[in-house]
Design brief:
2 domains, transmembrane, nitrate transmembrane transporter activity, Major facilitator superfamily MFS_1, single chain, globular, Growth Hormone, Chain: A, mainly alpha, MFS_trans_sf
Length: 449
């Protein structure tokens, strides 16, 4: 096998193994949520405490994306990724032991331990920022959108499938059997990652310390532009995933099971849309991708705000989900170009702070719902998300102009008009394909920091 073939095979293996690892780690966000009503009943929890227990894995995982993204820039991906999956496995094992020993009659006094295990399960959520850097290192920039779209899109299916299948497994096999199957799957995915995922060769001088890497990424305005966009698209995805069951139940009188199925369809659509979204981000102009995604997001929410038809509202939520998925893919397609020497740290900032939108947006939606009141309140409660998307769009369009300007400059520097070469036609055909960092260095082109 030739050297390029070995490299491509390793890149494909790393993409597959990292995607599966993220799938298993991110499923930890649903370790408590699907069974929170049962825990609330047994422990006599208030709705607020039950909600906090269900949200704990997401909160800790989102915040941990920041330091672990920086660790990628210092240590590579394998060690941080394996550590995060190992901690998540320990959390599931601990929950399994607790349930086996105390469920259902002796759970009294176990709430602090449940919070601790939920927090540890959230470590798997932080695999995202580590995997972004690891996958980006194996793919040239003109193929990063597709690779990262596959990684994020399929990996984000973890919570949706977990939320659907865990209650079924618990009903069929009991709560210990259900969590036992989850633990076995997580261990298998961890082993597959360890066997097949590899770190790409580092280009240039590595950042000496995680804190330096974080500061390097945070010093760029482009990082905060990406944070603002991800706050809306991914934070909005998380927030709506939490809010939609209440909307379907209150607006159309659906059962909790029916509301859960419609919400799962929203989550799956948003996750899968990242795959074609990444391909579009590779092939089309940034402005076109952004404007299309925002038109779908704002237009879908406008329909939700005035619709009283269940099929129409369902279609609108799926349009919003697809738009959010496409914008998420564009953001992480753009990120390696904005911080080529601190990809992991930038991914940590964007993934961590952006995911906090899932905690900030639902209270706004709930406030508008209460302010308006009635079924109309539930419909028009989505307005804050549309308003936030409109506020963030100008910053993202400026970022798209910056990225497009770099592409044009790189092509004209490679094929100057006075050279008489036939290269410009090739350059125009590759206008939307950003050269890799290694290619830039080989051409002796300075990469803006």
């Amino acid at each position: 096998m030739s050297h390029p073939d070995r490299i491509n095979r390793t890149a494909r293996g790393t993409l597959a193994a990292t995607t599966l690892g993220f799938f298993g780690g991110f499923a930890g966000v649903s370790i408590v949520g699907p069974l929170a009503p049962r825990f609330a009943e047994l422990l006599h929890l208030s709705p607020v405490i039950a909600a906090l227990l269900a949200a704990t894995p997401n909160l800790t995982g989102s915040l941990l994306r920041i330091p672990f993204g920086a660790l990628y820039d210092r240590l590579g991906g394998r060690r941080p990724f394996l550590f995060l999956l190992a901690v998540t496995s320990v959390a599931v094992l601990g929950l399994l032991v607790l349930l086996h020993a105390r469920y259902p009659d002796h759970l009294a006094g176990s709430l602090p331990l449940l919070f601790l295990l939920a927090a540890l399960a959230g470590f798997g959520v932080a695999t995202f920022s580590v995997g972004v850097g690891q996958i980006a290192g194996w793919h040239s920039a003109d193929r990063q959108g597709r690779a990262l779209g596959i990684y994020a899109g399929l990996g984000n299916l973890g919570p949706a499938l977990s939320a659907l299948l865990l209650p079924i497994a618990v009903t069929s096999l009991g709560i210990v059997g259900g969590y036992g199957i989850w633990l076995v799957i997580l261990v298998v995915l961890t082993v597959l990652y360890a066997l097949f995922a590899r770190d790409a060769a580092r280009i240039g001088s590595p950042v000496r310390a995680a804190s330096s890497a974080l500061l390097c990424a945070a010093s760029r305005r482009t990082t905060w532009m990406l944070v603002s966009g991800y706050f809306i698209s991914f934070g909005g995805f998380l927030g709506l995933t939490a809010w939609l069951p209440s909307y379907w139940h209150a607006m159309y009188g659906l059962s909790l099971r029916e509301s859960g199925i419609l919400t799962a369809s929203f989550a799956a659509t948003a996750a899968l849309a990242r795959v074609p979204g990444g391909i579009l981000a590779d092939r089309l102009a940034s402005h076109a991708v952004l404007l299309t995604a925002n038109a779908g997001l704002v237009g879908g929410i406008a329909v939700l705000c005035w619709s009283s038809s269940l099929p129409l509202s369902l279609g609108a939520t799926l349009i919003v989900a697809a738009a959010m998925g496409v914008q998420n893919a564009w953001i992480f397609r753009t990120l390696p170009m904005c911080a080529p020497d601190a990809v992991g740290s930038a991914a940590g900032w964007v993934g961590g702070l952006g995911a906090l939108g899932g905690f900030a947006l639902p209270p706004l939606v709930g406030w508008v719902t209460s302010l308006v009141g009635g079924r109309t309140g539930y419909a028009q409660g989505f307005l804050p998300i549309a308003a936030a998307a409109a506020l963030v769009l100008p910053a993202l369009l400026r970022l798209a102009s910056h990225v497009s300007g770099r592409r044009v400059g790189l092509i004209t520097s490679q094929f100057p008009p006075e050279s008489g070469a036939r290269g410009p036609s090739l350059g125009l055909r590759r206008l939307m394909a950003e050269p890799s960092l290694q290619q830039l260095q080989e051409r002796d082109i300075d990469v803006p920091r």
